[in-house]
Amino acid sequence: MIKHFLNLEWKAxxxxxxxxxxxxxxxxxxxxxxxxxxxxxxxxxFMIKILGKTHPNISPFVAFNSFIFFWILADxxxxxxxxxxxxxxxxxxxxxPIKRSSIVNYVLKxxxxxxANFLPLLTIIPFGITLMINGNESVQTVxxxxxxxxxxxxxNNFLNFILESLSAQTELSxxxxxxxxxxxxxxxxxxxxxxxSLLSSAVMGIAHNPLYLITPVxxxxxxxxxxxxxLHKKLFLDSGLKEKIKEVNAANLEWxxxxxxxxxxxxxxxxxxxxxxxxxxxxxxxxxxxxxxxxFYPQPVYQNAxxxxxLIGVFSTGIFLISFGQFIPAWDSGYYKLLMSxxxxxxxxxxxxxxxxxxxxxxxxxxxxxxxxxxYKVLIAHFVAAIYNIxxxxxxxxxxGSFNRKKINLDQKAAFNYQGTGxxxxxxxxxxxxxxxxxxxxxxFLINFEVACTVxxxxxxxxxxxxxxxxxxxxxxxxxxxxxxxxxFNQES
Amino acid sequence: xxxxxxxxxKYNNKQVLNIETLEIPKGQSFGLVGNNGAGKTTYFSLxxxxxxxxxxxxxxxxxxxxxxxxxxxxxxxxIDESFLIGYLTPEEYFYFIGELRGQNKADVDALVAQYxxxxxxxxxxxxxxxxxxxxxxxxxxxxxxxxxGNPEVIILDEPFANLDPTTQIRLKGIVKNLAETKGVTVLxxxxxxxxxxxxxxxxVVLEKGQIVKDIQTxxxxxxxxxxxxxx
Lengths: 493, 231
What we know:
heterodimer, A: mainly alpha, 2 domains, 25 helices, B: alpha/beta, Rossmann fold, 6-stranded mixed sheet, 4-stranded antiparallel sheet, 10 strands, DUF5687 (chain A), transmembrane (chain A), transmembrane helix (chain A), membrane (chain A)
């Protein structure tokens, strides 16, 4: 059975329409993973030395175990955002004589073969070996300790999928995990329940007395069972389809009429943003972008680095512009054929996107005015950045959009969803962020802050003045690549 | 109304469509039949300028479709679900199409009201997004949207597929009415020979991209078509 499943997956990967992209991303991921693997194994080999420095009075084994609680929390958080239950298209299999339970078991077992499960082994195995060699602990204790930790890893693995499936229905899907880990951390931090020492003595207790291994085994069995039931229930066609349909209230966006001939597109764009999973779940990116400055401005190092203000200015006023603009026109990829066969003016279509982005820049600038707390120069830099965003970046990003060839499925979540992302999206970042930052910094160093602001501001104003001309050019570019876009958006990725 | 000359389409040197000449007069109800891969959808896509012809061109009311865009105001189509905007309710979708075609809400309401029995109470006022409707109901919404704005040319790809029998019969009535009383040129493709012969004045059979039959519909047409496809 497993042979069949593996065979199907092999074909799914190599015959997918976007093979080139997946391989490129896989290679990039490979480097990241290699980097982590090296760090983790180094940490394992030198753990005794490290702990000897930080905790000179207790044995390295005890010291390490006291961290297990925090490791579990961090591991859960990390898994929640990065590890997904292996996907398998089960629909065609449901009518074949394969038992539902073997499909579920296969998916669950496959999840064990995840990098997230192997990474900790790279630390604990060298650490355990050095413990044995140095004679800190007996061979038996170390082996049992390994078993305990492997069981803990697996428990975490399956616990994560339970959390994910429970929170998948809610809008703010990351809230439950934040609350859970936050509460556990809080309970421990404020010494209400000393979970970290409880856990560490439990782990060491089992390590010295292998019979207690039965406890983590039972817990693992329970979380696996819960997962099995959750998945088994979902393995029916209608359960996936039924729950989605909610009553909707038709929105009345009459006020958009003030924008004249772009009103229908503006309404469409707003509805698109408000009614789709992918767009809705990227709202938190806006919040992050707006608060981006708080990572830097409170630090005295950046207080005087005026040349750096431009980056934060462009980013925090342009976060919507960047996250929305980079996927023009892929947002409309699902019904691009309709738009192209309708009596529409491309220019109106693009102008609606421009208007939306320009307004977002103004709104984000206004929301960011409190940054003036960190000095009036910050506000000036942000103001200039906003002008540059409206005048230059909107046009640059729309021009880049004409190279867009990747379909977007609006029904999927956004966090760490790279669907629709191609080389263009990365390349476009250079003129978008690096050019204003580089120019601004250069003039700041050579002349001064005021001149730098003037130059960037003037560039933005030139862009705004030339707006009608630029729109004509961009429209031409879109018209020229019409057929390629239609063909590309027709392909499921 | 629609003149096709020397039209061909190749994908990687494989010819999928080759029509030397095809003339569709105004007000004709025109049926296109053929097995899978015969080139029906390819022809409709070329007609809507969604793909580029390898050679030749189509002229729609004196306008070459891949050169000018002025044919768009009087041409409408429903090819497949990608003509629907999934996150709109049917009403919002009708209004959006209406606005693109210069119709205000009252115009759209008046037109849509005519098709209430076609909808069978499953489209309007359902408070559902188009993406949550069944395939058949999505199709109903798409077909009616193609009627908005008094188009002179209407292109429907496989309109009968996925529809229930009642709706199929009603659709036939709608199409006949459009061609006979309003002088609309209706282009339909179908696998259902009975429906096409019922509705269309003229039927063209495509086979591997070539026109192999061009029939003015009569009593004998259905037999003729059945004989052709059986052989």
